[in-house]
Amino acid sequence: MLKKMELEELRQEMDKLNAKLLPILKKRFDLSKKIAIYKYKHNLPIYDEKRENKILEKIKQLVEGGEFSLEIMSTIIQLFENSKRIQNSVFDELSTKK
Predict the structure, then answer these.
(1) Cα angle value 61/46/26 (rounded, 5°)
(2) Within 10 Å of residue 36's Cβ, how many Cβ atoms?
(3) How many Cα atoms within 13 Å fall on the side-chain side of residue 94?
(4) Level-2 CATH architecture, domain 4-96
């Protein structure tokens, strides 16, 4: 059983990881926005099933059989969904400026 001090130390470690993750997530979403602008200008669709499946397969191979593999895959899929949502909003914004 964890003592209160141990729990606090674990939470502090989690806070440090969150502080490292946030800038990476922000950069990923910034890139999603830039990709959306490119796709819009070049008449490309937001969703590229082939690319998404290729990335998911690669990640699946990296995490397969490991602890938390299901949770990691779920997180990656959610990242893709958030990126598509960002790209959709960029498309909407750009199409209203026409």
Answers:
(1) 70
(2) 22
(3) 16
(4) Up-down Bundle (1.20)
Contacts of 40 (CB under 8 A, 6+ apart): 90, 91, 94, 95
Cβ–Cβ contacts within 10 Å for residue 90, how many? 19
pLDDT value at 1 more than 90: no
| Domain boundaries defined on the chain | 4-96
Q: How far apart are CA 76 and CA 80, in angstroms?
A: 6
pLDDT, mean of residues 46-66: 95
pTM, two decimal places: 0.86
Backbone φ and ψ of 67, nearest 5°? -60, 135
